Structure formats: structure tokens, C-alpha cells
Amino acid sequence: xxxxxxxxxxxxxxxxxxxxxxxxxxxxxxxxxxxxxxxxxxxxxxxxxxxxxxxxxxxxxxxxxxxxxxxxxxxxxxxxxxxxxxxxxx
Length: 90
Known about the structure:
Blueprint: H1 2-23, H2 49-60, H3 77-85
């Protein structure tokens, strides 16, 4: 009985390994087998990274958040002092 259990376990592991190895190999005629030189794609335009970075830098300034700071807001002065004065235990 023990040998039969080991046989069935080995058979199941073998089937799993076989299915995993077959799944990792692409079928014949897949795009990986084709010659990539046959693919022709027209150019859409000239790539200019410097202009793109400059444009993005200009757009970025619109999205900067103005966060409250301690020196700019007297509204935060009281809570900041209260938190700083509180003694915390570890």
C-alpha cells in the first residue's frame, strides 16, 4: 500500500512538471519565431527628449501644492506647541 501511495504521488508530480514545462514553451509559429525584420512601422515624428522634459517641467508647476507651514500660519501655532510640550512614554 505504501508503494502505491508513493507511485501515485510521483505520477502526479511528474504530470505537473510535464504540464509546466510544456506551458513555458511557445508553440511553433509564435511571434518569437518570426523574423522581426519583416515588421514595418512608420515613424510618427521626430523624438526630442529635451523639449519633452521642458514641457513637462512647465506643466509640473501647475500641480504644486501649497502646504501650510508653521511660520506662515498662526492658526497652527497653538496645536504645534501643545504637541511639542506633551511628554510621551515609550
